[in-house]
Amino acid sequence: MTRSTSSANDLSRRRFLKSAASGIIAMTVMPSGLVTGRAFAQMPQATEPETFASLVQMSRDCYPHDKIEDRFYATAVQILDEAARALPAERDLLESGMGSLNQAAADRFGKPYAKVESEADRVELLKAMEDTAFFQKVRGNLVVGLYNQKELWPIFGYEGASYDKGGYLERGFDDIDWLA
């Protein structure tokens, strides 16, 4: 087996491959962070990265929980993105809906929705469009997409299904210490 005649070429090739691999990893993890300054492990398949990131912000504004990291909201949005990949009409609904929301934010605050600093201002924008098909689609997805993540259940005091343990009657169905 012959080796390259120049160790400088080998080192250069290694550096190139290492840099390329780092760049690919960064592009995979960072695309939605371009809009919000946050990175998500999820990569949008159907929606634009800016739309995906804005949907994560919208999700947090619809169901705000300070103890929940953005990655859980991104997981819920990923369900919307997967549906949009399967059905072009779903993708069009998300893209046009976010376009309308961004336009409303730009008209009012001079910047896209995800860049509006005040949560109260973003919520006001959402309230103005809560009767739209776009808003209802996102909100409806979040009910299941966010709250059905088992990692989050302890935060909400939910112990999981009870039918396989004999039901809630003898398992503290009235234990709502977490509510206080």
From TrEMBL:
UniProt xrefs under Pfam families: Gluconate_2-dh3
InterPro entries to which the protein is assigned, alphabetical: Gluconate_2DH_su3, TAT_signal
Full protein name: Tat (Twin-arginine translocation) pathway signal sequence
Organism in which the protein naturally occurs: Aureimonas phyllosphaerae
